[in-house]
Give the backbone structure.
Amino acid sequence: MLNLTNHSYFNLAGEGSAAGSAYRQFVQINADNYSPTDSTQIPLPLANGVPVAGTPFDFRAPHTIGSRISEVSAPDNVPASFAAATGGKSQLLIAQGYDHNWILNPGHSGPDGLNLAARAFDPSSGRLLTVWTDQPGVQFYSGNFLTGTLVGISGNTYRQGAGYTFETQHFPDSPNEPSFPSTTLGPGNTFTSTTIFAFAS
């Protein structure tokens, strides 16, 4: 089993930008469904996830990261049958923000035939990031557990709101969920994957 990804953090306002600046950036994710998790942040056994419609996880149209990140009482579309697994907590509360797999919609042909995963835009700098990939999912993480222990190249400490990630990959916990896209890599086979982080301003 093999499921590799890239954990680069992005803040299109710049490395030394003000605290919380990442929350003011717009994100769009090409996904009608996302993968909710249990109380330990392991995805629930839902092959198609749950719809993002009507939840703070709906980034089909651009929204700032911070605009709904605190809406822990909003619907998250997790089936009631999983209440025990989630401890009755909302998805935003479990992850302390966004830290979930979005199941990418196919059919958006980009460079080298790659599929559109996500876009991010910072109004202050005018920078645009577009993510293209051949992977079926993207883990969008809003930096919830940045606690000030990481220090950047200009001496700034990173806390919540300092950056976010787009981790293109197969679904987390795929080896334990037969209904998820397979991460099996057979003997003698070579794993290759392509993701493009394209910047414009």
Q: What stands out?
A: The chain has a mean pLDDT of 95.
